């Protein structure tokens, strides 16, 4: 490379989902710390904080590409933000590295997806829940594409299982008034709850569910769990102490996961910052995105996006998620499935795991929607 390459980093570290943004920002920062510690000096990050403002994501992406010459952007948390910046990324033939779980049904040659799609989180989560708790859930979600699409797919899975959805409610991201939803849940008595809320809405909902469980043991986590695909360790600090204990979350990584790769990663993290709290799957995914981007730019001696993408698609990448391979038709990474239960230390105990699953963002495989366990559900 004739001059330093710059990688844009586009995460909101403030606003309603700031805890997730700070975690993602931290993952990228740690990847660059390791790169610089081993003598790397040809690639630099440029950070832009949209502060949770959807319109600011587009301005941030424009600034990173136009003003700073970034041909790669690692970032966005919500699907709304991702969809806001992708047309600009396409226009400039850049590459977006998306490191958050999302609702699937998307593939873009100008994006690499490292956060997981439904066959890697929601479907195996239902494989666990339905045989144990039944097929009569209640669905709650944020009032935008993540909540809508995840609940739409959940309805389809429940129908395939011969069950029924007892209720479905949505809240704006910053809405914390959950009393009517809790009252409806108490009346309808579902077998479990799928929580696709994000930020303050999710935190208020978890706190209210604990109060409901204290009044009626039928709603304690062991009897009627609240399950998510997007709750992060960093967010547990935002939830009232103890309110989330026992609830479930599907992810591709947990801070407590017992693997040789994670033990080594944790040791490096603690050496870097002894006071660092538990890190999440978004931290790990953003770290992985930055590490892979750096490695591909170095290997190709250029930050030209098509060449970098082709290099990423050309091989398997060992790391925190096991042997990660990318599908060259959809640009999605293979990822493990882990199921975590919130513990008293504001972290997760891993109670189930699977080896990396190939991504199927459009659920084209027959097994993705109609599996034997669904037909045999309670």
From TrEMBL:
InterPro entries: Peripla_BP_I. This is Amidase.
